[in-house]
Amino acid sequence: MRDDMDDRLEMLFAATRNEVVDTSKAEEFFETRLMARLRERREARRPWYELAWRCVPAFGMVTVILVVCSITIGWSAPTDLFAAISSTQEESLSKSFMSEE
52: which of 8, 16, 69, 97 is 20 to 30 A away, CA to CA? Predict the structure, then answer.
């Protein structure tokens, strides 16, 4: 039985080797189809860094506005003890406030 299966398989391989396949239909306009598929894939998917580069001007404007606001407003230091403790100032600031130096 084993030999019979091997012979049948060998005949199948021989028949496949001798068969001539007509690939002219598949070769027709191959480059055009390939380029169209590549163009379609390129247009369909946008990379993540493209969005990041488009957001750079907006982030730049936010940064400029924050810098201008921080320069023009000029925050003043609080004068009460609890503001110095709660706003996470350095220990030396609260000591100097307590000792009135």
Answer: 69
- Distance (Å, rounded) from C-alpha 86 to C-alpha 13? 85
Specify whether the CB–CB gap between 96 and 90 falls below 8 A: no
DSSP code, position 84:
H
Question: What is the chain's pLDDT, residue by residue, as a tens digit (101 residues)?
Answer: 577 888 999 999 999 888 888 888 888 888 999 999 998 888 777 777 888 889 999 999 999 999 998 888 876 665 666 655 665 556 666 666 677 66
The count of other CB atoms within 10 Å of the CB of residue 89 is 14
Q: What is the reported pTM?
A: 0.34
Residue linked to tokens 């030999």: 3
Six token digits for residue 55 = 């957001």
Q: Rg of the chain's alpha carbons, rounded to an integer?
A: 39
| CB of 5 closer than 8 Å to CB of 12 | no
Query: What letter represents residue 100's amino acid?
Result: E
